[in-house]
Design a protein that fits this description.
By secondary structure, the chain is mostly helical. It has helices at residues 2-18, 22-42, 47-65, 70-82, 87-111, 116-139, 147-199, and strands spanning 203-204, 211-212. Helix content is 75%, strand content 2%. A hairpin with a 6-residue loop joins strand 1 and strand 2.
Length: 228
């Protein structure tokens, strides 16, 4: 019963913390608006479509704030926040993250212990990933004038980056798995060698102190049974 009561309490706390409020939606709005403005600076060719989307969202938010019914207000505020997270804006955010991933994963791949064949494959994967990141920069510099164009361009760039980052992840995972297997083999070999060494040590009789060969069952000095 205590476990059930504790589970119910935790569940209530969890759902209460996840429950949307006017205040939580205002905080989300501030974050989304800041991120949209940051994207305009990072991707000036998208500034017009981002500005248009912000205006649409801002109108929806102002209408929501004017409502009396709190439940409906929260829902409309949520909808307004959603207008600042449309497809091309989400894509731009993810592209930014993936471009950073290309840099960090390239560095990680170059630091791994690889054989010649793996190194050649790794270099090709890194080159392709860096190519996709550079292409992303070029494609996102072309001015877009509609949300449909923005969705299309960012979707293509995002797909290319995802594919290449995924290849890097697989290479890193495989290399680490191989490294762990080799480490286990070394550890197992060391453990076996330790056992052999210990097994080869002479056995000292606890009664008379005479040293006996490792295979001895009874002490050659006093005949007492030997503890191994």
């Amino acid at each position: 019963m205590k476990k059930i009561a504790l589970f119910l309490l935790v569940s209530l706390v969890f759902f209460a913390s996840c429950k949307k409020t006017v205040e939580s939606e205002k905080k989300s709005w501030d974050i989304n608006l800041r991120e949209a403005n940051e994207l305009k600076i990072e991707y000036p060719s998208f500034a017009n479509v981002i500005n248009d989307q912000v205006k649409i969202a801002d109108t929806a938010m102002n209408e929501a704030l004017a409502l009396i019914d709190e439940k409906i207000k929260i829902q409309k505020m949520t909808d307004a926040n959603g207008l600042l997270n449309v497809t091309f804006i989400r894509n731009l955010k993810e592209i930014k993250t993936l471009k950073y991933s290309v840099r960090t994963k390239s560095t990680e791949l170059r630091s791994l212990k690889l054989d010649i064949s793996e190194m050649m494959t790794s270099n090709r994967v890194i080159a392709e990933a860096e190519r996709s990141a550079n292409d992303a920069n070029s494609k996102l510099q072309v001015t877009v004038n509609s949300r449909a164009d923005a969705d299309s361009v960012t979707g293509f760039v995002l797909s290319d980056l995802k594919s290449n980052v995924s290849l890097m992840d697989r290479m890193i995972s495989n290399a680490k798995e191989k490294e762990n297997l080799e480490k286990k083999k070394v550890e197992q070999a060391a453990a076996i060698e330790k056992q052999k060494t210990e097994a080869a040590q002479p056995i000292k009789c606890t009664y008379c102190g005479v040293l006996n060969v490792p295979t001895a069952v009874n002490c050659k000095g006093c005949g007492a049974p030997l503890k191994k």
